[in-house]
């Protein structure tokens, strides 16, 4: 089956950059997603990248994809307290398979 | 309208009750999904409807019964649930089966 792994916890200071990492096993994945989930809420789609791209930037968010190492990362520039949440990477392989989620805590 | 709505927000039911969860979107999306999310875990896919037809059932117990009355509505009928079915139930939709999915806020279900 599809394995998607994420580090479980990241703590950063307000104003710093955050980098959340994700690794996966299936190299035939086409679309790769990042979702944000705040307490008691549903998942909010942040951004996604197609597998033929290396990088995608959207305001404070930068997604990097290293297909050779099967590694996906999400960089959040100038991290704010409102960015505190759980971040899920999702890999498309006939269905959306999520990693376990990374808890981001932003200290003011 | 660019959101997925779900009702109710919270639901408490006994093991002998019958209840339904509702999901609605008016984005013209043709694929709709039910996910189950336990605390501190990622969402797990339960069902997929594509063009109002059930296309994926992830071996979900028959006490969960999905229904797609039209392209904008998705229901999940619940009957004879167990306490371990308590979870956040998320609905999602996408333009097509291969497009990005947009999630609703979820229904927090507690089975007593």
Task: Describe the protein's architecture and organization.
The complex is a heterodimer of chains A (108) and B (112). Chain A has 108 residues and is mainly β. Chain A has strands spanning 4-6, 9-13, 18-24, 31-37, 43-50, 55-58, 61-66, 71-76, 85-92, 96-98, 102-107. In chain A, strands 2, 4, 5, 9, 10 and 11 form a 6-stranded mixed β-sheet that branches. In chain A, strands 1-3-8-7-6 form a 5-stranded antiparallel β-sheet, with no helix packed on it. The mean pLDDT of chain A is 94. Chain B has 112 residues and is mostly beta strands. Chain B is 0% helix and 57% strand. In chain B, strands 2, 4, 5, 6, 9, 10 and 11 form a 7-stranded mixed β-sheet that branches. A 4-stranded antiparallel β-sheet of chain B has the order 1-3-8-7, with no helix packed on it. Chains A and B meet through β4 and β5 of A and β10 of B.
Keywords:
heterodimer; A: about 110 residues; mainly beta; 5-stranded antiparallel sheet; 11 strands; globular; B: mainly beta; 4-stranded antiparallel sheet; about 0% helix
Structural class of chain B: mainly beta
What's the average pLDDT of chain A?
A: 94
SS field, number of helical segments of chain B: 0
Instruction: Tell me the major beta sheet of chain A.
Output: 6 strands, mixed
User: Outline of chain A, from the CA principal axes?
Assistant: globular
* Count of strand segments of chain B: 11
Rounded to the nearest angstrom, the distance between the terminal CA atoms of chain A is 40 Å
Find the biggest chain interface: A-B, 19 and 20 residues
Please identify the oligomeric state.
Answer: heterodimer
What is the CA-based Rg of chain B, rounded?
13 Å
Which residues of chain A form runs of ≥5 with pLDDT under 50?
A: none
Structural class of chain A: mainly beta
Q: Report how far the terminal alpha carbons of chain B are from each other.
A: 36 Å
How much of the sequence lies in strands of chain A comes to over 45%
- The SSE string of chain A, one letter per element, is EEEEEEEEEEE
């Amino acid at each position: 089956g599809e394995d998607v792994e994420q580090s479980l916890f990241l703590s950063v200071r307000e104003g710093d950059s955050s980098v959340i990492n994700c690794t996966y096993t299936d190299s035939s994945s086409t679309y790769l997603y990042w979702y944000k989930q705040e307490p008691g809420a549903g998942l909010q789609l942040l951004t996604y990248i197609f597998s033929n791209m290396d990088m995608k930037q959207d305001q404070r968010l930068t997604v990097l994809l290293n297909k050779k190492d099967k590694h996906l990362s999400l960089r959040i520039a100038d991290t704010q307290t409102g960015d505190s949440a759980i971040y899920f990477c999702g890999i498309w392989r006939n269905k959306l398979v999520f990693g376990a989620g990374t808890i981001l805590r932003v200290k003011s | 309208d660019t959101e997925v709505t779900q009702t109710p927000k919270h639901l408490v039911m006994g093991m002998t009750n019958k209840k339904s969860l509702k999901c609605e979107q008016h984005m013209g999306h043709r694929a709709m999904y039910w996910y189950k999310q336990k605390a501190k875990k990622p969402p797990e896919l339960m069902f997929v409807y594509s063009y109002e037809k059930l296309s994926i059932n992830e071996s979900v117990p028959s006490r969960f019964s999905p229904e797609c009355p039209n392209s904008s509505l998705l229901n999940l009928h619940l009957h004879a649930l167990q306490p371990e079915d308590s979870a956040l139930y998320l609905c999602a939709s996408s333009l097509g089966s291969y497009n990005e999915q947009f999630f609703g806020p979820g229904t927090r279900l507690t089975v007593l």
